[in-house]
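Course assignment 3, question 2. Fill in each field.
Student: A.L.
Task: Predict the tertiary structure for the chain below.
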Amino acid sequence: MKKYALIVLLSINLMAGGTRNPKPIVGDDAANAVQTDERSYFEMAMGKPVGRLTEEELKNRVLYTNFIGAGAIALWGTAFWDYFTTAPVAGDEGWFESNSKYGGADKLGHMYSSYLFSLGFASLFEYWGMSEEESLSYGPLTSLVIHGMMEVGDSFSESQGFSYEDLIMNTLGAAFYYVREKHPAVKETLDLRLEYVPDLNSGQDIFTQYDSMKYLMALKFSGFESMQDTPMKYFELQVGYYTRGYENHDAYSTKERVVYAGIGINSSEVLKALGWTKTSEVLHYYQLPYTYLPLEHDFNE
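Answer field:
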């Protein structure tokens, strides 16, 4: 499955900096912030510069990142998938119809993946010394280049084919990241999350275990000034979608396409109140299971 190739990139990018908007460095510390001759193995792996990079050097790093990422996808697809084995073809994957391959869960997976990659690349570029404003643009663009290369490769694949649906969802994920970071009010009130409990006995790869995944948008009460000093800040409204039985048919008697809405606990805000600030940031992107009460509707009924 093509998402295997993304795991290394995603892991490295997210480790580069889980949260943006770091505490500003001022005074003498600012001049020496990245000017160090000694780097840990992690810093070397992440490409931490020995000295402060110029604007041109930063732009070149972004360019090289795009070339290397796209090239790696092309080489991997040629070696292990069936890229470049046929003339360009378009695949008709559908959207959220009942007869589509995954019932639409894969489309939300593309949006979420593009969203996370935008975060990862933007954090990486900022780690290298790029300004927050510039990394906010270059991160999503790099995410689109990487995902776009995969769609190009798919178009030369007999088993895949170019999917305009995937391209649209990739764009939506990157765009949502940009809007969320550009406008603090959106970031304080809206989260895009994945709920995932791996099924080690399913026989499916962990990146397409859609029977174990839910995608959701959370409206956080903590983002509203009138609720910030009340117990309501620990709650939120959620709207989500998931499918069951489309991939692992034997485990389900019927296929399900479920949309749900409900009230949940803002786990990030709870951890923050307990002093676990860094850990709380992860929960802006991952939904803890069993922390909400949903009202569901199955479109396949």
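Instructor remarks: The longest strand covers residues 235-244. The CA atoms of residues 268 and 280 lie 4 Å apart.
Grade: pending
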